[in-house]
Amino acid sequence: MRRLRTTADIQDASADPLIRWAAQALSSGGAAWEHRGAVAVHAPSLTRRRRLVLSGPPEGVASLLAAHGRGTNLRPLMERTLAQEVASLMPTPWTEDKPFGWMDRAGTLDPPPDVHWLSTTDGVEPLLRAALPESWAWPGEPGVRRWAGVHANDTLVATAAEAWSSTDVGFMMGVAVHPSHTGQGLGRRVCQFVTSSLLTLYGTCALFVENYNAPAIALYRKLGFAYRDLTTLLPAV
Fold this sequence. Notes:
alpha+beta, 13-stranded mixed sheet, elongated
């Protein structure tokens, strides 16, 4: 089992955007390891969770999980099909938590007109409370870097954030459209703008999405994102 001590080490060990996104944890007390082609990144605080992000061949992932996956409130995160294979290899039982989606894309994307990065977050919180009260990203939260938006009559009616981006994976969160302005394509416009900006800066753009949110998944697919199910494994009680 080999310790990966730098972001470059992680990038050399894994091409998976999920792992490369988690690599940012090395700058905030995290750690990473490689074993038999699998990689694990311990992220003490990433999108509000203490995570162990894993990817690679099931046997290697199982070994990394056995060595580093137990701890108070630690959430081993990986692709759902991988989690099911890994759980079958573990000497003690693990159960699957609620799955959710990861979507990513590379390349370039033209930005839409009339969308911009906001110079102030005024209006973002009221919009989120009206349209997305369960948002993971909020103004002023650690890791949330900036907000884009669309205004109508000087009122912010659509927004999305760059949050928790790593060295080579930009991350989009907090996508919201005011209920009185849905059906006008504003969600697609603000997501296209943020995606275009993050692709230019990082080369890859990614996001989380609820796996039951078919309209959101369809919108992101139209913007070129590919979907995969993620889940968290929990020690069986």
